[in-house]
């Protein structure tokens, strides 16, 4: 029988052999269990790889929609511009899109500037919110500061314009405050 060195019997540090209590059937069963576990790990890894492919496809879909939204901010129809701004607001609020936005920051900034200058009321308010989210996403670096420097004069002019709607002035004030804080 196996005896533990800690059991207190003689030998002070002598090593004792341990007999295997595993029959051939038990050992084979345990080996199959280990193989099964390895198979599960492989399947889990494959599932993660599949999710990565799905995520990549999903990311491309999101980017395509964002490109459409950016283009639609230049549309003649106010309804289409508002829908595009709302789509941009929603996307920028939910997902980190730094790389996508860095590549298109000038185009998006120009589109927002146009919406702020030419738009009225709700469009200006929504464009100010999107401008804030853009600067937040770009961060406190040269890209974010450049975007803010471009939009700051327009946001300020709407803020001090007494004939502009209260909602658009409020959104511009918030945008200026947030962008100043970040930059």
TrEMBL record:
Residues 34-45 have a biased composition (Polar residues). Residues 32-182 form the Interferon-related developmental regulator N-terminal domain. Residues 32-59 are annotated as: Disordered. Belongs to the IFRD family. This is Interferon-related developmental regulator N-terminal domain-containing protein. It comes from Petromyzon marinus.
């Amino acid at each position: 029988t196996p005896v533990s060195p800690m059991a207190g019997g003689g030998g002070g540090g002598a090593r004792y052999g341990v007999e295997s209590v595993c029959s051939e059937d038990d050992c084979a069963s345990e080996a199959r269990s280990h193989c099964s576990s390895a198979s599960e790990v492989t399947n889990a890894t494959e599932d993660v790889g599949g999710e990565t492919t799905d995520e990549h496809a999903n990311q491309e879909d999101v980017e395509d929609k964002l490109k459409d939204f950016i283009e639609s901010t230049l549309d003649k129809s106010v309804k289409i511009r508002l829908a595009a701004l709302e789509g941009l607001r929603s996307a920028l609020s939910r997902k980190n899109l730094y790389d996508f936005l860095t590549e298109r920051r000038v185009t998006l900034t120009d589109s927002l500037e146009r919406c702020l200058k030419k738009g009225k009321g709700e469009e200006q308010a929504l464009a100010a919110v999107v401008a804030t989210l853009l600067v937040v996403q770009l961060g406190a670096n040269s890209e974010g500061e450049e975007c803010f420097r471009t939009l700051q004069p327009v946001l300020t002019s709407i803020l001090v314009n007494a004939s502009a709607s209260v909602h658009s002035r409020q959104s511009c004030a918030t945008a200026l405050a947030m962008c100043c804080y970040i930059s």
